[in-house]
Amino acid sequence: MAAKRKSNLRKRLQRATKPIRFRSRKAAAAKRTRAPRYVYYFGNGHADGTGTMKALLGGKGANLHEMTRIGLPVPPGFTITTEVCSYFYDHNRSYPPQLEAQVAAAMDKVEKSTGKRFGDQERPLLVSVRSGARDSMPGMMDTIL
After folding, report:
1. 11 pLDDT more than 90
2. Rounded to the nearest 5°, which phi and psi values hold at 41?
3. Predicted local distance difference test score (pLDDT) of residue 143
4. Could you tell me the residue range of the domain that residue 67 belongs to?
5. Fewer Cβ in 10 A, N or C end of the chain?
6. How many domains does the chain fold into?
7. Domain contains 21
């Protein structure tokens, strides 16, 4: 009797978990086909990244995301990942094809957040371009204001 109950229980468990496994495989397949993410936005209390993502966002970028995430006042912006640098050197000094659209989408978020437009004569969006890396290298690159 106990063996039969175990067998029935095992069958019910397999039936119950079958849809979960299917969804998991489907989600994994969708993740594999998703375009790589090269741009992470922060602003208005929302941050796509965290302070633990220094290898991906660089030290400055990860810190900006973390400060935004914990509620400190940080002007909106975005970080281009360190993977873009790797891609650039691995692909004959070219950028990933998805990068331009991702930067444009992030810039659009910044413009909407500030009510200003990049390149606009009347309501110009002023930006700062900062370099960053996986490891700290002070003085290696210029800051552009």
Report:
1. no
2. -90, 150
3. 58
4. 39-114
5. N
6. 1
7. no
